[in-house]
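Recap from last week: sequence in, structure out.
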Amino acid sequence: MKRGEVQAEWNGLSEEMTQGIADWREQHPKASFREIEAEIDKRLSALRAKMISDTAVASAQADWEKGAVVCPKCGEQLEKKGKKKRKLETQGGREVELVREYGVCPKCGQGIFPPGGRVAVVAGQADPARA
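Predicted structure tokens:
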């Protein structure tokens, strides 16, 4: 998806989220601060997960397009081996499914998903193998 399309989708989801919060508030006029916070966090986490997923996929794709994907062990150019799926959990507890290119080093056989040595923050911890 192109940047403009992604931005338009995020804007649409953001509008749906804010309208949903307003609707929820009308249905729960006596909600406590904690209930309001929980509802808003739940709705924000869905938008956040979508933004994280879209951004992660776009970053990995950009690396492949630049030809900047090399083996972290030996520095050899990786070969594409098709797309793979991986499920991760965001800090907000949302499951995100990433579909990205899987790379294999022709020299040492190292398989990498995603290629490019990206570091992701998952559940508050940086872990290069989990992105």
